Amino acid sequence: MMPYLIEYNWLSSYQTIEGIERILAKMDTRMKYESNMRFSINELHLFYADFEQEFTLFFEELMAHSNQKIQIL
Predict the structure, then answer these.
(1) CB-facing half-sphere around the CA of 23: CA atoms within 13 A
(2) Is the pTM of this model over 0.90?
(3) What whole-number distance in Å separates Cα of residue 16 and Cα of residue 32?
(4) Which residue in 11, 20, 52, 67 is deepest, having the highest Cβ count within 10 Å?
(5) CA atoms of 15 and 24, how far apart (whole Å)
(6) For residues 65 and 55, is the Cβ–Cβ distance under 8 A?
(7) What is the pLDDT of residues 55-65, one digit of tens each?
């Protein structure tokens, strides 16, 4: 799996909504049962601002926690 991750630079796909949409569509086709995962992109569009706000708060807390742990080391 790692060679494909590197060769096709999969992580960069998560930078854009279009990239996430492509990944969800691919994941959806790999499911044994119908998951309709590809349609979850609609939720991302609808609630993007909310997700961004929550992530920003989470990331600020993560950075503060990490800095605190670094100080201990």
Answers:
(1) 14
(2) no
(3) 27
(4) 20
(5) 14
(6) no
(7) 999 999 999 99
